[in-house]
Design a protein that fits this description.
The longest helix is centred in the N-terminal third of the chain and has 21 residues, at about 35-55. The protein is of the alpha/beta class. The chain folds into two domains: about 1-85, Methyltransferase, Methionine Synthase (B12-binding Domains), Chain A, domain 1 (Orthogonal Bundle), CATH 1.10.1240.10; about 90-210, Cobalamin-binding domain (Rossmann fold, 3-Layer(aba) Sandwich), CATH 3.40.50. The two termini are about 25 Å apart. It is about 55% helix and about 10% strand. α6 links the parallel β1 and β2 (about 120). It has a five-stranded parallel β-sheet. α1 runs antiparallel to α2 (about 20-30), α4 (about 60-80) runs parallel beside α6 (about 105-115) and α6 (about 105-115) crosses α12 (about 195-210).
Amino acid sequence: MDKFKFIINDLERALLTMNHEKAESIVINATSISSPIEIASELISQVLQKIGEAWEEGKLALSQVYMSGVICEEIIEKILPPSDPNRKNQPKMAIAVFEDYHLLGKRIIYSTLRASGFELTDLGGGLTSENLVGIIKKEKIKILLLSVLMLPSALRIKELKSKLSDSDVKIIVGGAPFRFDNNLWKEVGADGYGKDSSEALEIVNKLMEGSV
């Protein structure tokens, strides 16, 4: 992280002002002192986490969080393309909206994770337990991020976990019901809960390190 201390604030400013050209220039120049995967995991990941935390504190607009993720995702595609071994060697991940079609929160987390060097499949919205069980088993998904809008859907995650009892998939949840009840994610059997994109990123990083 020390190697990026002189540019992390510059990148954050470029993202928050939606200056795509400046942000890309900063990241491209950073490849002279670090590898693409280090840039993704140590520079971009940290900047996006800071931006997510600032939004949580009410200092930024949601549009700034969203566009920062989109810009970084596009830049990472150039320096760390999907064919890169660092992406392929990761456990298979997917993200979905459970029983609903409110996609913005999912899109922000998807962009944040991909911009941080992770490869994951966007399964879309409106998926049921039956849909997800079939996909997880067929595609051998190891980490599933689920966004939930309504309490009844959140409670049905327990049913989903039961149907996946013979699988080693880790389920990370997020959404309004879990913000209202901090213990709900444990009650439904989820393996983790992220209240925003920065927390989701932190949990995925810990899963990769084997500390969750």
